[in-house]
Design goal:
With 529 residues, this protein is an alpha/beta fold. Helices cover 36% and strands 17% of the residues. The protein has three domains: 207 residues, FAD/NAD(P)-binding domain, CATH 3.50.50.60; 108 residues, Alpha-Beta Complex (Flavocytochrome C3, Chain A, domain 1); 89 residues, Up-down Bundle (Methane Monooxygenase Hydroxylase, Chain G, domain 1), CATH 1.20.58.100. Strands 1, 2, 5, 6, 7, 8 and 15 form a seven-stranded mixed β-sheet that branches. Strands 16-14-9-17 form a four-stranded mixed β-sheet, with helices on one face. It has a four-stranded antiparallel β-sheet with strand order 10-13-12-11, with helices on one face. Helix 3 crosses helix 4. The longest helix is centred in the last third of the chain and has 24 residues. The two termini are 34 Å apart. The structure holds flavin-adenine dinucleotide and succinic acid (SIN). Succinic acid binds next to loops.
């Protein structure tokens, strides 16, 4: 028998949990998470949440900073609602028990990050995401209407071929792989993608292992519109150490006065942007990339030594301790850093209520393309987006729920056909590695038509091989993820090849300038169109 709920939420990060918490007032909610329920990008967030909380700050300034970072592609309406509704969502989070750093007088200690014209980022030391996730999970645990299914990986959306509106079938839920290896149906009147980003598409990333773009891949296969996948954000400062797996060195370090230096100690950001080390992220990542190519060095350095040990241990305890564990004392030596894939600015196209182009399917958080980020996300705007859109989507989804009859459809159980256990797991690990490496080398911070063409050719072969493997052998989580990173890689290459200009995070040597005539629109892809 299938599992049936009113709302099915795929993902337990800031966006999925924000949605689940509100939706529980309107019906039963299932939250599926691919691994342990706290694991995702949210729990790794360091810097904080951007929100207009200081009397000296203004909505207009936050809107303007977001639009400038977005390089002409932000949707103004999405920016307005996010910025204006942000403070209320943050206050609700505080009311749930989330604790953020405060001054002795009780007001929030606001930090600054690249592209922000003011101090407007609330934070919990340097582990903001952990605190957000903790508070949301605790609140969800108090709701009897919410059931968690950890270690349950959605494989594909289930569509109802009989109900279609404008040629699109309604989403009925998902097939999902349980830890036991069994595949079950989870059905709901409203399905919400909150599956986060896809950093694992690239060889070097700040993202944890779950970030394999499953939501975008599933939605695309189901015919949803996907947009702006060429705008993958590279964070400028990931710890460079052979044993440190993707550890982020927060932008807040530069916000507090950290200086970027070359091996010989020279600063260089002043040659690239008037805001120096606090320029928008795309500028800093490209500048580091250019300096590494010019000098042949393997990393640059973030120097915090002038700020003193007492301040560093108090303000950045987690980063300090992690560096220390790798024998880097950030109070007395600069931290070696390199850029790494960090954030998916594009995604599944939604309106301002999280609705996608597939009836019954919503998308919130990093998986969604709401129009907020345009061609480049402003730092610390994404936890904010998860809170705002998680909340907004509930309004629309609960209205939709009220107008829908309880479904009678019983989609067929998963058909494993003649699939057998794989005898060649090396195919999975080899292809996984090849995709991530080719994306890093050919579709990274700096692109060319020729590199994109090379990537496209190789991906075509790899996708064919993966398709064949997927149908011949029993589904495992590794295979699900491999199939999805191949799909997402293909979407990034496709979007990047269509944009014949440089804008925001998409920089190509063949068209090094922005072309407002050609380029000031989203790159939208859909399988069905
Ligand atoms: P996530 O938190 O990534 O959650 C995704 C969920 O989906 C997980 O529960 C996962 O298990 C589940 N899932 C995925 N696939 C499946 C599947 N097939 N089936 C079932 N479940 C699935 N942003 C800021 O605003 N401020 C910051 O300071 C900040 N710092 C960051 C630091 C790091 C190191 C990283 C990686 C990101 C940072 N970001 C920051 C970005 C921000 O953390 C993310 O964009 C945001 O948390 C995404 O939230 P989400 O709810 O959309 O997804
Ligand atoms: C950071 O702390 O540098 C990450 C902030 C973000 O990605 O928004």
């Amino acid at each position: 028998m299938p599992h049936r709920f009113d709302f099915l939420v795929l993902g337990g990060g800031v966006a999925g949990l924000s949605f689940a918490l509100q939706a529980a007032r309107h019906g039963t909610v299932a939250v599926l998470t691919k691994r342990a329920r706290g694991e995702g990008n949210t729990v790794h967030a360091q810097g904080g949440i951007a929100s207009v909380l200081a009397p000296s700050d203004s909505f207009d300034a936050h809107i303007e900073d977001t639009l400038v970072a977005g390089a002409g592609l932000c949707h103004r309406d999405a920016v307005e609602v996010t910025v204006r509704e942000g403070p209320d969502r943050v206050k609700e989070l505080v009311a749930l028990g989330a604790e953020f750093n405060r001054h002795t007088g009780g007001e929030f200690d606001l930090t600054r990050e690249g592209g922000h014209s003011a101090r407007r980022i609330i934070h919990s030391g340097d582990i903001t995401g952990r605190e957000v996730e903790r508070a949301l999970l605790a609140a969800c645990d108090e709701q009897p209407n919410i059931t968690f299914f950890p270690h349950t990986a959605a494989i594909d959306l289930i569509l109802d071929p009989r109900s279609s509106s404008h040629g699109r079938s309604r989403c009925l839920g998902v097939y999902a792989l349980l830890e036991s290896g069994v595949i079950e149906r989870f059905l709901a009147r409203v399905t919400v993608l909150a599956t986060g980003g896809a950093g694992k598409v690239y060889l070097y990333t700040t993202n944890p292992d779950v970030a394999t773009g499953d939501g975008v891949a599933m939605a695309y296969r189901a015919g949803a519109q996907v947009a702006n996948m060429e705008f993958y954000q590279f964070h400028p400062t990931c710890l460079y150490h052979p044993e440190a797996k993707s550890f982020l060195i927060s932008e807040a370090l530069r916000g507090e006065g950290g200086k970027l230096r070359l091996k010989g100690g020279q600063t260089f950001m002043e040659r690239y942007h008037a805001m120096g080390a606090l320029a928008p992220r795309d500028v800093v990542a490209r500048a580091i990339d250019a300096e590494l190519k010019r000098t042949g060095d393997e990393c640059v350095y973030l120097d915090m030594t002038h700020l003193g040990r007492a301040f560093l241990t108090e303000r950045f305890p987690n980063i300090y301790a992690t560096c220390k564990a790798f024998n880097i004392d950030m109070a007395s030596q600069p931290i070696p850093v390199v850029p790494a894939a960090h954030y998916q600015c594009g995604g599944v196209v939604t309106d301002l209520t999280g609705r996608t182009s597939v009836p019954g399917l919503y998308a919130v958080g990093e998986v969604a393309s709401t129009g907020l980020h345009g061609a480049n996300r402003l730092a610390s705007n994404s936890l904010l987006e998860g809170l705002v859109f998680g909340h907004r989507a509930v309004r629309a989804a609960s209205e939709e729920l009220a107008s829908l009859p309880h479904p009678k459809e019983e989609p067929p159980p998963w058909d494993a056909g003649s699939a057998v256990d794989s005898d060649e797991s090396v195919v999975v690990s080899h292809n996984w590695d090849e995709i991530r490496r080719l994306m890093w080398n050919y579709v990274g911070i700096v692109r060319t038509d020729k590199r994109l063409m090379r990537a496209r050719r190789r991906l075509e072969l790899l996708r064919e091989e993966i398709r064949d493997y997927y149908w011949r052998f029993k589904v495992t989580r590794d295979v699900i993820e491999l199939r999805n990173i191949a799909e997402v890689a293909h979407l990034i290459v496709d979007c990047a090849s269509r944009r014949k200009e440089s804008r925001g995070l998409h920089f190509t040597l063949d068209y090094p300038h922005s072309d407002d005539h050609l380029g000031q629109r989203d790159t939208v892809l859909s399988r069905g169109l």
